[in-house]
């Protein structure tokens, strides 16, 4: 199929197989957000679970609309100078039949690329709900996530993902979002948690997950969807195999490393740890999956699983109530994966050679720069957005609402109808028939 492109007079030849793979991958990544909702929903207390699910689903709507109207153009539109931001050329998906600026060998229509990248923006914003669990006002969340997706995420995506971005031009390698998605969400989550303040009773009150099976189900959906997240970033059905197998390899290695750390520290590996370890491995391989071989993927998974398991205690030492450990899993995992591209990257797979494959320290330096930029930008820009929303409309629910539970206080709903199981209730009448 032929379509108009840039420069004028040049035609793009799209590949039907590549297009189908990118669209299927986009659907897989979209499925990750409900998976994340279940993953987080099982980890909060029973009285807050629907509020967590609601925030994740609303993020799909808010960020999805912002993406097609504005954010995509800022992230991937023609650069306005210096590789800092795209212009409004693709505002409301105008000129969408043209090529993605700066992209070589584009084999999918730009609209397919738009949809695929939209799902990245959605789940990155949804990840922040884990840091703010149990205390964030619903209206404030809607405003915050809308502004954040435009002001914080879109510029970072332009710098790294757009071929015209300044970090991309410097040679930074981030196959599927170790900086843009993982480090940005982890550090942004910590900044949001600081603006919100601690949960009532934290850290002295024990706040155990209310439904670990729900969390494991969510982790399984995330593992499944991550194949689209990473392998889809090849933008080619033929080039997706290496990213696919590396994703599974690192995820499996990290799961085992996390439970091993738990066994050594406490004597008992946990189901929650296994689920968290799998996510940590998928996070860490995200920037590296198209640039490393099986050895690199395995080492990255093992290191990420171990370090992220240890990092969950940092919030207690720092006094930052990152409720569901977004910084420890996504921030630290993204940090590990991004830097280790500079060590284990090999041109035999794709990209440049890292330090261990004769490439010298140049790539490692580029990766370190990207990590530093992502940390600094995410923290400062997110803090500005969060404190701005807090000043205008407040971020946090009342103490009474937090004690009663966000499900009832904000949504007039409960996740579990225990009244039906009480004597004389629906459950009792069913049982009396047998």
CATH architecture: Orthogonal Bundle
Please give the order of strands in the largest beta sheet.
Answer: 1-2
Shape: globular
Strand count, sense and barrel status of the largest sheet are:
2 strands, antiparallel
Overall structural domain count: 1
Q: Can you count the beta strands?
A: 2
Helix/strand structural class: mainly alpha
Q: For the residues shown, what is the average pLDDT?
A: 94
- Measured between the Cα atoms of the first and last residue, the distance is 64 Å
What is the CATH C-level name? Answer: Mainly Alpha
Q: How would you name the CATH homologous superfamily?
A: Ammonium transporter AmtB like domains
**Can you write the helix and strand succession as a string?**
EEHHHHHHHHHHHHHHHH
Strand content: under 5%
What portion of residues is helical? 55-70%
CATH topology: Ammonium transporter fold
Uncertain stretches of 5 or more adjacent residues: 1-11, 426-434
Q: Gist?
A:
64% of the residues lie in helices and 1% in strands. It is an all-alpha fold and 434 residues long. It has one domain: Ammonium transporter fold, CATH 1.10.3430.10.
Provide an overview of this structure.
Helix content is 64%, strand content 1%. It has 434 residues and is mainly α. Helix 2 crosses helix 3 (110-131). The longest helix is centred in the last third of the chain and has 32 residues, at 362-393. The radius of gyration is 22 Å and the shape is globular. Residues 1-11 and 426-434 have low confidence and may be disordered.
